[in-house]
Specification:
The protein is of the alpha+beta class and 121 residues long. 17% of the residues lie in helices and 40% in strands. The protein has helices spanning 60-70, 97-106, and strands spanning 2-4, 12-16, 25-29, 34-41, 49-55, 76-84, 88-94, 116-120. The protein has an 8-stranded antiparallel sheet with strand order 1-3-2-8-5-7-6-4, with helices on one face. The two termini are 18 Å apart.
Length: 121
């Protein structure tokens, strides 16, 4: 997979629901760059919102712990973890921003994240 934190390259463009995020636009496409290291559920399904989380090696165990906790929550549809340079990018699908917010309030995270929710163009 190829991931760019802009809309300058061809692919599926995702726009953040909020304007105050580090990466307001993310493009994901087939191609070199990131290799899939984990997938569950239906992260490529239709509908809902996409949670995109870039992070480094030191957060890998915490991401797995968070995913395990959150995957049992209502509204979780699936996730994919990609490894490339400079680190990892997790892409998770949730049924709605409301269900994601409820899930994160119900489950104590293993580490503080700064993820962003996105919709595709």
């Amino acid at each position: 997979m190829r991931i760019t934190f802009s809309e300058a390259t061809p692919g599926t463009v995702y726009r953040a629901l909020r304007g105050d995020v580090p990466h307001p636009v993310v493009t994901i496409a087939d191609g070199p760059g990131y290799d899939e290291v984990h997938a569950d559920g239906d992260p490529d399904g239709r509908g809902g919102v996409i949670l995109i989380e870039p992070f480094g090696d030191r957060c890998l165990a915490a991401w797995h712990e968070n995913r395990e906790r959150l995957s049992s929550q209502r509204g979780y549809m699936g996730s994919r973890l990609l490894r490339g340079e400079p680190g990892y990018v997790a892409v998770s699908r949730w049924s709605s921003p409301l269900m994601y917010a409820r899930a994160t309030r119900a489950v104590e995270p293993a580490i503080e994240w700064q993820p962003a929710l996105y919709l595709s163009d």
